[in-house]
User: What shape does this take?
Amino acid sequence: MIKCVEFLRTLFYPRTIAVIGAHIDPTRLGFTIVDTVIKFGYDGRIYLINPKYVGKNLFGHKFYASISDVPDEVDAAIILIGAKKVLEALDECVKKNVKSAIIFTSGFSEVSEEYGRAVEEEIKRISDKSGMVIVGPNCLGIFSAPARICTFPEAELKYEKAGKISAIFQSGSLLASFQILSSFRGFYLNKGVSTGNEAATTLTDFLEYFIEDPETHVIAMYIEQVREGRRFIDLCKSTKKPLVALKVGRSEAGKLAAKSHTAALAGSIEVWNSVCKQVGIIQAKTFFQLYDYAMALASPKRPRGNRVGIITSPGGPSVIAADICGELGLSIPRLSRESVENLSKVLPPFASLANPVDMTASALEDLDVYRSVIDIVASDSNVDMILVIAPLTRQLKIAEIIAELSEEISKPIVVSWTSVAYSEELRKAIKVLGEKMVPNYFMPERAVEALSVMLSQSLIEQKKSLR
Amino acid sequence: MIKCVEFLRTLFYPRTIAVIGAHIDPTRLGFTIVDTVIKFGYDGRIYLINPKYVGKNLFGHKFYASISDVPDEVDAAIILIGAKKVLEALDECVKKNVKSAIIFTSGFSEVSEEYGRAVEEEIKRISDKSGMVIVGPNCLGIFSAPARICTFPEAELKYEKAGKISAIFQSGSLLASFQILSSFRGFYLNKGVSTGNEAATTLTDFLEYFIEDPETHVIAMYIEQVREGRRFIDLCKSTKKPLVALKVGRSEAGKLAAKSHTAALAGSIEVWNSVCKQVGIIQAKTFFQLYDYAMALASPKRPRGNRVGIITSPGGPSVIAADICGELGLSIPRLSRESVENLSKVLPPFASLANPVDMTASALEDLDVYRSVIDIVASDSNVDMILVIAPLTRQLKIAEIIAELSEEISKPIVVSWTSVAYSEELRKAIKVLGEKMVPNYFMPERAVEALSVMLSQSLIEQKKSLR
Assistant: This one.
């Protein structure tokens, strides 16, 4: 168990990395990882280790026979060699005084209980004794936007910006999907780690790190097993940062699958549910919810009550929105007499001035109507948060109006697209809203869930303030 | 109430259409609709009605002062004029012996109970007396892939092919979203109708039509209110075609919103739930589920039991899949000894030969492994249906293998992408699977739901066979 936040820092901000098992064959992981790290824009120093290729170069980086030959300090070693050579490589890393090691290699306790456990105990012993951070084995490494490093073989490699969400995943492939999703949805990741079998460094260690990390505003977790329950609970209690988790092993079939994936013992879901309630973890039930909720919570705004003002131009989606508000315990209040009067001045006679405010398609002819209507609804003291349902057209212009207004309005605003696929225009609109931290979703069903999650987090934060 | 299936046919296969209220100003709906109809590829004859533009042309189509001036029979009239002129226009249509009229105009019972109801009763009287089909008012019209006609102003206008799903929606904008979604997801619509306030023609009428229609294999419905309960129930009971519905008005807030949208009285959700159970309607809770389930049911394959064989290369997604199988009552059986032996011959030693079969990333090096593994699992007598979880790369090639295999395998196969956005390659892969009716989803959580829905439909069909 490594508690030293300073030490984990070298993992996310390495000035030098060594790739043990780097390869010149483009079909091999030892090539892909080097390629990935470079494409994502890492600008620290890179050393490649493979005795077979001494004297050769890959993308201008030299090969060395052993890590001990590297003429530099090494902050992070990425280990990609066969399972049987891993311990030896770690010993060499310790001798070289390497600060952290990430073991990608699989074939340990997830495959063979006896042999794998023994090796993993030895990995832990090496880490404890030397103080070297060791991540994995059976993992896909790390992501750190501030340090421009990404080791996920299939990530989105076009760097956009550092976001506010950090992710701890007990599945590398799901983390890669999560990172790709974040780049499409415009609320970016700050850091991420695939923890694998957690021989020496656990989800809980990273939780401590991200709680301390000033660049992390929301912590998203994919969990098969929490290995240090007591410490995990205490850490969760200690922070007001939003915590959102997708926990698998809810069914027996899931528990079995988790065991063969990362040797996880998923534990009782009833216990987990009560822990979440007690320590203030927002639970996602699906992968997409995990991201949707993290996006909602990355917005710094919190509602002060459960009353939603809905503004729409298409009719059907607002019915879905209202329905789900009702199911999730959000109310759709009457607007004040003043608001209705003000609305009547800017909307056509056949528009609905009740809540949901249905501007009808005519609002698309003069988008300033959007601005006025949002402003009126947001100013209404009966309303705690605002849902804007955007139509199928003119999304970019509408996004620009909302992004601008969101800076003046202190109440949370969430946008629902009725679009269902990424057109060029919609992708731009999503970026515009992401820039101003306005959460936005496909279809109102997901947007209303986001509002509900914002309210839950608001209540969690109030409760934690009282302690 | 129009029961004549032959008569509704002219609506979906019009040889001539007239647009009453056609316009030359591109910002007006009277322009957009004409533009939409032409862009989608309608090749029947088009007549434009607007006394202001007599003598002018739009896209080469002539304007007439009145429908009575049109020198041709008119199968379908699209009415876009102001509310107060609608009855007059209908009377003219009747005189002209127009077979069907679609009233887009809004501002009836959804806005004004008394005035609106009165006009709608008159609309019904006109329809009953003349036999002219009247759709709407307050709707967005129809979609018919076989006749290449689409009147949704914001639809996906690139025509691909006629699919097997037909849709009845009490919201035009949601239907447009549904049609766009279907074009992205590769299981296309056959026909669709936005029923609006249903003055003369109801959801139940269209249900009857689609039950009879040989080109419709699945009927998807967005429902605010069922206006002819008894007949609706009898029709649902009478068919083995899959019926999937998203019903709003589950909460009080949703009921109120539905009322101001299409003047719907949503009724009791408990009654609705028991009707669904009784008559065999698969219920969706969200917009995306409505499409996901329609896709699953468009596949002609049905499982004979609840046992799922899961084949994956990424680990985490298979844990999610297993977990949700457990939650939805699907089992993940042990594979037969023979299967395990056969798998051991084609998979590397560190692969998991249990179910889920985790081929590990090495399977990507030789995609023939995919073919062998799917074949082995599908042949196992312990397995009723197959879930293949595709990795983040090589999706097209994998889709081609699965599409080919799906023709030889009688058990349902469903694919889960771990991708979360539409890359060029993924869009191609989706089309390849759609072509062979292999349902495919983003992330296993949705794919497992699809398997569960296929099983439910299988049980519904068995039950209906016994009657």
The mean pLDDT of chain A is 93. Chain A has two domains: 5-297, 300-466.
